[in-house]
Amino acid sequence: MSIPTMTDAALAAHLAKVAGRILIEVRNSEMFEGEALGKAGDATANEFLCNAIRAQRPDDGLLSEEEKDNSDRLNAERVWIVDPVDGTREYGEQRSDWAVHVGLSIAGIATIGAVALPGLDGGVVVRTDQLCDLPAPAKAPRFLVSRSRPAKEAVAVSEAMGGELVGMGSAGAKAMAVVRGEAEIYLHSGGQYEWDSCAPVAVAAAHGLHCSRIDGSPIRYNRADPYLPDLLICRSEYAEQVLALVAGLESEA
């Protein structure tokens, strides 16, 4: 299928949505379960996304969690960074808190993207070119953390701010919960890769949220080593306080 007239944002949203549908079909086939379901979903969605991006944007670079890295991308200004299933464990467990990430980095900045949340009722795609209204924040800030391994910085900062910890699965699901007004702060440390955050950061930034490393420095993409250990996505009114508290933790260490 040729989609030559689509903008980059529309293409990202279309691909994320279709990949999400494919993943639901794989899950509903009942041919796989648990870890095998996660592997089957990853492989199927990755094949679709990578083939589609190469067909629609042949001059752009590509980085996928499920694809062997090609260093040629380092010479490209425009690089698509995708995670076919963000939250493979949650997908394999047939939970709803997993996502599909399709992001476009331009000159190292997460600029355009879409995050599909296929496990939610009806499926949801949050994108850089169609903005959600942000509701009023909760009185006590809600911090999104891993269900099993909450980041120590998030725990400490939440305690200092009188916040509430909310366990959730994938990075994309957490970031989109902030975009959708279901939480206020996503403070992560302890290890991620560029595909975990490129599309979520693009979407969050388009919605006016603060996005940075936890030391306040900018998040850069399309680097030789895609390891990206930490990030902060939050409502702008909390950014200064969160960063100051994180810096205080570092000075005490």
Task: Please give a structural write-up.
The mean pLDDT is 95. With 253 residues, this protein is α/β, with parallel strands linked by helices. The chain folds into two domains: 8-127, 2-Layer Sandwich (Fructose-1,6-Bisphosphatase, Chain A, domain 1), CATH 3.30.540.10; 142-252, D-Maltodextrin-Binding Protein, domain 2, CATH 3.40.190.80. Helix content is 39%, strand content 22%. It contains seven helices and ten strands. Helix 1 (8-28) packs antiparallel against helix 2 (34-56).
Present the secondary structure layout.
Elements: H1 8-28, H2 34-56, E1 61-64, E2 78-86, H3 88-92, E3 99-106, E4 109-117, E5 124-127, E6 142-146, H4 152-161, E7 164-168, H5 171-179, E8 185-188, H6 194-206, E9 210-212, E10 231-234, H7 236-252
Parallel strand pairs: 1-2, 6-7, 6-8
Antiparallel strand pairs: 2-3, 3-4, 4-5, 8-10, 9-10
Helix pairs in contact: 1-2, 4-7, 5-6
Q: Which fold name fills CATH's third level, the topology of the largest domain?
A: Fructose-1,6-Bisphosphatase, Chain A, domain 1
Low-confidence sequence ranges: none
Distance between the termini: 55 Å
Structural class: alpha/beta
Fraction of residues in helices? 25-40%
